[in-house]
Input
Amino acid sequence: MMKINDLSRRNFLNLVGVAGGSTAIYQTSLAMGVMSETGKPAKLDLKQVKGEKKSVLVLGAGISGLSVAYELERVGYQVTVLEASKRIGGRNLTLRHGDEIDELGQKQICEFDDDPKMYFNAGPARIPGHHRRVLQYCKMLKVPLQIKTNFSRPAYTHEADHFGGEPIRVSRYIADARGFLSELLHKAVDKNIFDESLSPEEIEKLRDFVKNYGDLKADGTYQGTIRGGIKSGGMVIPSASHEPIELRALLDSNFWRSGLVSSENPDWGDPLMEISGGMDGIVKAFVEAIRSEIVTNAQVQSIRNTTEGVAVEYHHGGKRKQLKADWCFNSIPSHFMPSIPNNFADDYIAGLSAMSRGNFFKLGFQMKSRFWEDEGIYGGITRTSQRINQIWYPSADIHSEKGVVLGAYAFHGQSGFFEKMTPAERLNFAADCGEVVHPGYRDQIEAGVSVPWGRMNHMMGCGVIWSDEVRAKYWDRLRLPEGRHYMMGDQISYHSSWQEGALASAEFAMQDMDQRVRAADAATTEAK
Output
């Protein structure tokens, strides 16, 4: 903990920078190496090979596989896509009326109304503004976007062991946290405890800054603010603010560890976007634009490098079939790869085995009324200490009759709790949790679906977790080809579980292949 005597001018300005928002945190994180920027999309100036009969096999029809098929067929490659599932899109999954949830051993059918507004994004659900590849493809393929509210001050934070177990508005927490922090800084300014003395003019400006930032009184004390929401009045009678939450109670809670600064994370900071009508809109647009064959229900049985390329055996239509190609781009989940017969080098397979399998769980409810709007909530997220973690409110179709909310979102190890339940038990549990935040919640539920990615056929997980040791040992090995075979997808990126990571990985693999093709063609021409 920083002592008051250690609060140098530089440290203080750093704190002010952090308080300034996501841009400061993002740039600092990049400079410290804490986070890797996704980078600008490359201009894919791939070599035209029309008439040369160069071929490519793509394993997996998720976002990375679809982007490879789209880009390579445009420059003349003969492309075939093999997908083990009966559906295209990978983890980009939007559920609507009548859709089947392909969970291992537990069949679910989505019973939402047959209404295009009633859908649930069980996979990707938001697009940050710096995810330029996703946005670039949306623009190229004319996929409509809309703004998604991710951080909402009128939403709630709920912790069973704090604030009397009652949900409180996020706005109150933020306002009171800023207020008390600003009061402490105001006192520090008065004592001028910095290493280098501030000038009288700087002291006055700093004093004004913290007063404005925390809405302090003239004497520099924090006594509450209407920034935390108006308790009463505000229109025809004077506004009354809530009593401040005690500083000790704020510090004892856990909201400041994650929810308070969630909007400072570049992946969660407004403005975010989503695809109008469901995130699978980009999948549909890719499929419409791709001319190459996409074979579903085609489960890969073996992958082998040959002297001339790659040979893949797969099961389809009750028969074992084989395809050969010059190159192979593979987005099969890495945890499946060691069990698929291959002739890859031992260290390559060791790297694929070393990554830890990621996991997520999502649950959605169709509600018969948009009761959250009656509480002044229009989009955003409520966070709770209960196992459901979060409740998301839809940003679109405001004042419609009904809406779909995300009723639970569990991460990695948390997902196992829900995986052990039946679908009905999951819905019942999430309904009870929602009732704590919104009394009457259960009575609003008309239908629900749950997607445990760790139990979904052909997936059995969601993304990967790279330890520092595994990345240091295997990262360079796995992103480069093994013979003519490339692994790709969000699993081979610094942005696992995000579509942007999948597209960046595919982009890197295509560029690397293109360089090798150009070099080989140049060598052949020179030999002649």
Observations:
- Residues 170-253 form a domain with the de novo design (two linked rop proteins) fold (CATH 1.20.1440.240).
- The chain has three domains: 55-89+281-355+465-527, 94-155+270-276+359-455, 170-253.
- The first helix runs from residue 9 to 19.
- The radius of gyration is 27 Å.
